[in-house]
């Protein structure tokens, strides 16, 4: 199954890319972000705050037209910040692990949303989503501060070991992962000769069920959307929403993900 192809050009059909029609990113104290708005502009538009993977940046993220065009076609503004940690010669990653020194990513991402609201008139309804290292960042932020944004959608990323002892709740979260992902396997893996260890995605789902005070461990509903096998827990705390989608592919954002997750985000139980 092919993922979205990374095309290094501005998203077709969008009103603005870069920062309000000007070339280059929007600049903030401590960082930057790129913005792509729907064709009707940003006033009142809900926001997808999209976090790139390790070794990339916000500019590359908005150049992924297969993903960005689908999101803006649904009326969403896409904000793509650049992570606060360096990764490789020119890339970036996210300061997601508790105890790491560096930029306060929660504060920076909140300021990104506030800046876009002031510049473009975007709404405060925000889905924080991200891929790989961006998915790790989404997971840790949702765990520590779920009140920060409306809902969360990590793709191919969860937690690292040692796993958090617990997460705050309630949280609205949709986890997506590839069955054959070898970069971030479902069970996790050891990196840099034991310096780091990715966590188990299923163990992360248990943390979310506990945070949401779900009545049971087993899903309350199963469904299929295209290639996605979905599991849902809705016997949980008021204000929570929790789903998990597996798909038979590897380490990429799969085709069909955008519409599936936006349909979930727009559903009454995810509001």
Summarize the structure.
The chain has 271 residues and is an alpha/beta fold. The chain has helices at residues 58-62, 65-73, 105-120, 133-144, 201-211, 257-266, and strands spanning 26-28, 31-36, 47-51, 77-81, 85-87, 91-93, 126-131, 151-155, 172-178, 190-191, 196-197, 221-225, 228-233, 241-247. The protein has six helices and 14 strands.
Task: Tell me about this structure.
The protein is α/β, with parallel strands linked by helices. It has one domain: Rossmann fold, CATH 3.40.50. It is 23% helix and 24% strand. It is built from 6 helices and 14 strands. It has helices at 58-62, 65-73, 105-120, 133-144, 201-211, 257-266; strands spanning 26-28, 31-36, 47-51, 77-81, 85-87, 91-93, 126-131, 151-155, 172-178, 190-191, 196-197, 221-225, 228-233, 241-247. The strands form 3 sheets. Strands 1-2-4-3-7-8-9-14-13-12 form a 10-stranded mixed sheet, sandwiched between helices. A two-stranded antiparallel ribbon has the order 5-6. A two-stranded antiparallel ribbon has the order 10-11. The protein is globular.
